[in-house]
């Protein structure tokens, strides 16, 4: 038998897998499943980006690139970051196959056995897995009592972090809650990070999916530039999930350590995809705005539908998720909802918050209405 490494034995397979397996199983039987479990925009990638990718392929951009990314894209990214108030240089940017890889490289670069990572629950599932894979220990702050906002939870966060904290992960707009943290919340994070000399990951992958509010970049706050790893990517803003393109920005000393992992693992992100990324950053504002407006309408419609059934859902100002309060045993609720109502959602416990089901509203208004009707008909709402 195999003698598996402790690091893989420490982690569980993605909790969303059970749901998507079940959804596929039902679909194979001919059942029409409303799948609200997936975290991806339902729009096609904007045409100008597809064309730029095709042109790049035709032009022969099919070989390896410099490990950290093609200069044009790193320049476009650092310019974008400077626009967000971050003192960024192209040399501090690593272009990765997806934001997930950027996060993975950051955890591997910073976390040693026993190092403490602080998360705010509910937290995106992979932060826990990445911590465990790196050998770190978790310390979690619960935002559920505060309607998932960070500002009212700052005292709890202050109680959780200490000089022993190596890394704090901030994700705003948040997956799975959609919450956008306030400026005061970011200032609170800054004060704690500076006081305790903590490195902070700011996962800003949903930065451009906000409704009527702006999401500032944490690294732009005084004192944060030298201790923040900014994560972003193209999946959510430009509907490019399958292209696999993201990046990290970090102080040069950190970026150059992460670059070693990068070069010895993925080598580089896909060449022609990086060219498409330049087009995305430079010429896609209208499509981004259109998608964002569509998400906003769906969010409002869905919240109204829930309210019509006396379900009060904390509605965030970003991303395309909401956490629906369900039975204490959220896993059974989700299993039942897919089995009986054929509506797929993800149990909140997968994110550290039992009692909720995460709903992705990156689906058409018709499908969202259908989902609510079915949940009501089967007694789930
Ligand atoms: N961070 C968060 C919070 C996410 O929800 C996701 C995707 O679901 C990612 C990072 C990674 O996205 P990608 O690897 O597609 O860029």
Automatic annotation (TrEMBL):
Its cofactor is pyridoxal 5'-phosphate. Its EC number is 2.6.1.-. Residues 32-375 form the Aminotransferase class I/classII large domain. Signal peptide: none annotated. Pfam families: Aminotran_1_2 (PF00155). It is an enzyme of class 2 (transferase). GO terms for biological process: amino acid metabolic process. Keywords: Aminotransferase, Pyridoxal phosphate, Transferase. It comes from the Archaea. GO terms for molecular function: pyridoxal phosphate binding; transaminase activity. InterPro entries: Aminotransferase_I/II_large, AspAT/PAT-like, NHTrfase_class1_PyrdxlP-BS, PyrdxlP-dep_Trfase, PyrdxlP-dep_Trfase_major, PyrdxlP-dep_Trfase_small. CDD domains: AAT_like. SUPFAM superfamilies: PLP-dependent transferases. PANTHER family: ASPARTATE AMINOTRANSFERASE. Homodimer. Belongs to the class-I pyridoxal-phosphate-dependent aminotransferase family. This is Aminotransferase.
């Amino acid at each position: 038998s195999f003698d598996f490494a402790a690091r893989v034995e420490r982690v569980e397979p993605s909790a969303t897998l059970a749901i998507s397996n079940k959804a596929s199983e039902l679909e194979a039987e001919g059942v029409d499943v409303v799948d609200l479990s997936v975290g991806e925009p339902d729009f096609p990638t904007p045409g100008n980006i597809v064309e730029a990718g095709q042109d790049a392929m035709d032009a022969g951009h099919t070989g390896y690139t410099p490990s950290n990314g093609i200069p044009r894209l790193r320049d476009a990214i650092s310019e974008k970051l400077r626009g967000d108030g971050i003192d960024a240089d192209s040399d501090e940017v690593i272009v990765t196959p997806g934001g997930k890889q950027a996060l993975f490289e950051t955890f591997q670069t910073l976390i040693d056995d026993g190092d403490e990572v602080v998360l705010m629950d509910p937290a995106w599932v992979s932060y826990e897995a990445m911590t465990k894979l790196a050998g770190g220990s978790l310390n979690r702050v619960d935002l559920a009592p505060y309607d998932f906002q960070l500002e009212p939870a700052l005292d709890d966060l202050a109680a959780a972090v200490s000089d022993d904290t190596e890394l704090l992960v901030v994700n705003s707009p948040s997956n799975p809650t959609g919450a956008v943290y306030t400026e005061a919340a970011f200032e609170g994070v800054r004060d704690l990070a500076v006081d305790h000399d903590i490195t902070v990951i700011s996962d800003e992958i949903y930065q451009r999916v906000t409704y009527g509010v702006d999401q500032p970049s944490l690294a732009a706050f005084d004192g944060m530039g030298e201790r923040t790893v900014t994560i972003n990517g193209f999946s959510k803003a430009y509907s490019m999930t399958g292209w696999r393109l993201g990046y990290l920005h970090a102080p040069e000393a950190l970026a150059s350590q992460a670059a070693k992992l990068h070069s010895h693992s993925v080598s580089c992100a896909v060449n022609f995809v990086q060219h498409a990324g330049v087009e995305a950053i430079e010429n896609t504002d209208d499509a981004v705005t259109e998608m964002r407006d569509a998400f906003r309408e769906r969010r409002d419609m869905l919240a109204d539908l829930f309210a019509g059934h006396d379900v009060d859902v904390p509605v965030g100002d970003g991303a395309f998720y909401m956490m629906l309060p369900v039975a204490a045993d959220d896993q059974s609720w989700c299993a039942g909802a897919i089995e009986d109502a054929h509506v797929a959602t993800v149990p909140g416990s997968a994110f550290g918050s039992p009692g909720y089901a995460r709903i992705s509203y990156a689906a058409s208004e018709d499908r969202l209405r259908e989902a609510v009707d079915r949940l009501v008909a089967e007694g789930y709402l």
